[in-house]
């Protein structure tokens, strides 16, 4: 199958998280772009329309929650889905979550393998091994 | 692997620099040390005057002479001829002592200054190619010529750029490496967290152990993993002699078990895991077939070895190392604690039941009627509790409460308990103390606190005319109300010293009649609809026992 590699956008202000997640996904055959805050993430999402967005919650300029709300409201991006990866998931209000495109909330510290499995599940890509 | 990386890095670096310089219209040439050729390395058309140079054998020879300066990694432009400079672009590779100087190709930027247009060498080149010197000079694009100072400046900047690029590449490589390590650490952490959270005693221990092995196998990256427990400690119960595996085993389960048993029998040093790079030297049959290398980690408590975990053949082909051993050790430790907990829990259960039996035996010893009565009351109370919809946990606790509900009778004189005739008021008062005495006996056993209401309140009445506290209605704890029914039922049904037992129908009628006064009406209704088959069987068994005793 010569399909194009699915594109994932990873948004987090902590660069080590960006590196770890990107590395794991790239090694599994995904194409990955990154952003360091909600504003950048929103712009990237609009320009590249990734298959899936993995985002942190608390970030400067715009939080992951706000970003996902904006993405859902925008007709260009309202079909995009997001995975939230956060150490503060317990403080996410459910009504706010419903106004977003977030399909799953995973907590930090995370297992990179589990993230990969979730991404594969959500993008319909079977494991390579 | 590192070597290959720097090779790739070098070529990427060269490409990057080549592109940038081409976009600035600077010619890049590739020089070879042993051959006398130069090839223009950049795309696009080098200027004509440079073309002359690049194609000239004299130029290549001259560059060859100056190879040491060109390849020393300095920041200066090397003057080949007046007005012709080469600025080296490929970085110096540090040579090992054993290397001869390799015939590497060198990339360099070519810069030309006005002195070149008046030089002897240009004359010679033109002569050699039979070009007219004046025509050649007039074709030169003077706007591209650089001065000596400009050449040196450019050399400096290119050198810095080259170094920065190398640093960036190195850092990128380091970040990649760090990310990898971090990722693996996250996995290990995640595994340990998961294990610690799931290590509860209320799930089947076999499930937990199997899951743990599966997860460890995934994280540690070995081809297979086997956990084998000892078979000679009865406290292990279902865990005894059990084997848990993960990954690709390759040998039969009998062979695997034999290998594990041999490892266990050989004894292990508790403090360190063992790594064998070549299993052949261990001299265990079938082991080399299972794995070419082996990590062995014992599971142990303070008292003894509980089992052994062994695994082998890293999937990435590397050798088993201390890092793998440490992770497996940490896990084995957790599992040992878990198994120990399971055994302690079983011990505690056993001790609890033992205490219970001691109490009920005490009751038996006291009064021959009470023999069997407590068992029957316990059984019926449990049946009633189940019919009334209590939780599984409560249903079991009611049973135990029923077993000990009359333990307070120890405080009542035998003469009173066994009196065939009518009791006096004083004698009756003594008997009425048994719920409180029973509660007092149990109150220091923490695991029996929830049994106390059944013991203390099984003589309370729904209408509040009971004892010891004259509670009424739903103020009477549920256990009390349940046991009350079962207790009265058995009392009415069985033969006492002062009267014979009533027929089953009579007892049921009486219960119906007293629903709402002596008994909880809802529970009474449930009770009369119970199945009494097991009860009658138990009566028969107890009567036979009594007959045997008196014989």
Describe this structure in a few short sentences.
The complex is a heterodimer of chains A (129) and B (551). By secondary structure, chain A is of the alpha/beta class.
Q: Your description of this structure?
A:
The complex is a heterodimer of chains A (129) and B (551). With 129 residues, chain A is an alpha/beta fold. Chain A contains five helices and five strands. Chain A has helices at residues 15-27, 38-48, 64-73, 94-98, 112-123; strands spanning 7-11, 31-35, 52-55, 81-86, 102-107. Chain A has a five-stranded parallel beta sheet, with helices on both faces. Chain B has 551 residues and is an alpha+beta fold. Chain B has helices spanning 2-23, 48-55, 57-65, 67-70, 120-129, 133-139, 148-198, 205-220, 253-266, 287-290, 322-366, 370-387, 392-403, 414-417, 425-431, 434-442, 452-456, 478-493, 504-514, 521-528, 533-550; strands at residues 27-32, 38-40, 78-81, 84-88, 105-112, 222-229, 243-247, 274-276, 294-300, 305-314. In chain B, strands 2-1-5-4-3 form a five-stranded antiparallel beta sheet, with helices on both faces. A five-stranded antiparallel beta sheet of chain B has the order 7-6-10-9-8, with helices on both faces. In chain B, a hairpin with a 4-residue loop joins strand 9 and strand 10. In chain B, helix 11 (322-366) packs across helix 12 (370-387). Chain B is rod-shaped. The two termini of chain B are 91 Å apart. Chains A and B meet through helix 1 and helix 5 of A and helix 7 of B.
